[in-house]
UniProtKB/TrEMBL annotation:
Pfam families: adh_short_C2. This is SDR family oxidoreductase. It comes from Cognatishimia coralii. Belongs to the short-chain dehydrogenases/reductases (SDR) family. Gene3D superfamilies: NAD(P)-binding Rossmann-like Domain. Keywords: Oxidoreductase. InterPro entries: NAD(P)-bd_dom_sf, Sc_DH/Rdtase_CS, SDR_fam.
Amino acid sequence: MSRRVLITAGASGIGRAMAEGFAAAGFDVWITDVVAASLADCPDTWRKTRADVSDEAAMAHLFAEIDAEWGGLDVLCANAGIAGPTNAIGDIDLAEWQRCVSVNLEGAFLATKYASPMMRAAGQGSIVYTSSTAGIYGYPNRAPYAAAKWGIIGLMKTVAMELGPEGIRANAICPGAVEGPRMEGVLEREAAIKGMTRDEVYAGYAAGTSMRSFVTAEDVANMAVFLGSDAARLVSGQVIAVDGHTENPDPKV
Ligand code: NAD
């Protein structure tokens, strides 16, 4: 029987690259996303469910479906996240804060809550969280995002301790700045905030890493596939940056 992976927010960006990576590694792939058109654009060989990770009823239904169809789950990639507001701390609206924390952190919690009974019953499993370098260093004008990504690290550490004795591993990947449509929006907003051009901000981000580079979604997916594999059988409780080594988390170049 093939191994089975669920990837939240698997229809685009990093999640889609993870789905492609696990499929190439021979996994059966199940993805969720909120955008129906993005789901429709993904291969029909993947199972697809439209679900908002912050909606507990939808998540409970999703995992009941997985249990009924697959009878278990080997790897969970709790990947869904939104950028949230880009405001100074004194200008953040509480509702925007709550929505950002809800999707990023509560979504990861809910996926873990419903995946863990299946993994415990099997006595094995690997949970891969998508945090961010924002969760390690902070991120100016992105307080709820950074707080939620830091929260994911706390969740991961706890899950690793709590479920490790039952054969379940948990790790968090912290991507740096990933090329793609989402990053283009970030670059435009940062440029407006800092009074710079998009290209200057781009150069500044790359210059803030030892490798002088942006990250690709495939770079992050490669790490997720490794963490989901038996090659990582004793890797748990780890925060793993895939960021080209951040030297300066807030480049002002
Ligand atoms: P993306 O915007 O390209 O894709 C995100 C996907 O999440 C979209 O398909 C969207 O429809 C889906 N989504 C949004 N809200 C959802 C919800 N409530 N429930 C289910 N799905 C939802 O983003 P990405 O860059 O691929 O980001 C994926 C993860 O990586 C996120 O957790 C993000 O915070 C994290 N991350 C991204 C970067 C980056 O530079 N892009 C850096 C560090 C961490």
